[in-house]
Amino acid sequence: MSEQHGFKRINFFKGFLTTEKDWNDAEQYHIEKRQLHARSLHAPGVVAGVGGDLKVIARARGDMSVEVQSGYAVDGQGRDLYVPEPVIKTINPDDYKLPQTVYLVLRYYEEFSDFIAYKENLDYKGHRRVLESCKVELSQTEPDAQREVELARITLEKGMTRVRDARDASDPRPGELDLRFAPRAGVAGSWLAPATKQKFAATITFLRKCATEFARRGVHGARDASATANAVLVACLAESVDLRNAFGLFELLLDAQGELVFDIDANHGEIAQKRELPNTAARSSCCAAGLARASAMRRA
């Protein structure tokens, strides 16, 4: 049974004599459909909000061991990778030709389990279950997104005796956990309620209009604020915004608005003196409005 030739679903009828092949085909049908769905509608990677999000942390023991927290991921073939409990992994630098970048990856595997043999007739025996699981492994090669999910990478050097969490997550040093390349599973569509999506879009549109007006008056910082608002609005219209990222996007918007206010203060005294903008608080009204609407959206 293959998706290339269509999916055949088992059909029971009176008098149908089933065999193990029929039941295995029935299971395979659901496996292939589920994996096709995952490959087509979800980007591979770590699924946010399950367990500890598969985050990798140093164990603070002064050694080369790390802990992979529990969580769930989907690989490039649409297979489920579930880690129910934290996993400890120890890196041995002697296993590598240093300097070397080592990748911590999650790989799917399955194995037969629950073997049974019937003593009445030993021809009837087999495994009653197939265990779908995954393994946390160390690799020296760049991860293949089709068959594994990267969780972290570490650059090893000679004389290294411990692994640490990165002091600067955006620029990890040798011996520090680099989590920048761990992919995040994507979703199809947005989970926001329609009314909440409208509030969000209305807020972004309001901020964009404010920034555009200041840009017309020659405020250079307003161009960045307008561009940021446009980018967030595109994400909203593409149904890519929900509670996983909405407030992070708002933070970007408010940062851009803050730069706009600073630019007006520093370089555009003539605008600051206008009647409609008597002080900094008034000039940042778009920020205040954005915050108020964000707060209302959070309560909703």
**Class per helix and strand makeup:** alpha+beta
The total strand number stands at: 9
- Distance, first to last CA: 47 Å
Number of helical stretches of at least 4 residues? 7
What is this structure's SSE topology?
Layout: H1 20-41, E1 45-46, E2 56-58, E3 65-68, E4 71-74, E5 80-83, E6 87-90, E7 100-117, E8 125-139, E9 148-156, H2 194-216, H3 221-237, H4 246-267, H5 269-272, H6 280-283, H7 285-299
Antiparallel strand pairs: 1-4, 2-3, 3-6, 4-5, 7-8, 7-9
Helix pairs in contact: 2-3, 2-7, 3-4, 4-7
Structure described in brief:
The chain has 300 residues and is α+β, with helices and mostly antiparallel strands. Helix content is 36%, strand content 21%.
Structure explained in plain terms:
The protein has 300 residues and is of the alpha+beta class. The chain has 7 helices and 9 strands, in the order H-E-E-E-E-E-E-E-E-E-H-H-H-H-H-H. The chain has helices at residues 20-41, 194-216, 221-237, 246-267, 269-272, 280-283, 285-299; strands at 45-46, 56-58, 65-68, 71-74, 80-83, 87-90, 100-117, 125-139, 148-156. The strands form 3 sheets. Strands 1-4-5 form a 3-stranded antiparallel β-sheet, with no helix packed on it. The chain has a 3-stranded antiparallel β-sheet with strand order 2-3-6, with no helix packed on it. Strand 4 (71-74) and strand 5 (80-83) form a beta hairpin. Helix 2 runs antiparallel to helix 7 (285-299). The two termini are 47 Å apart. 23% of the residues are buried. The model is unreliable at 277-288 (pLDDT under 50).
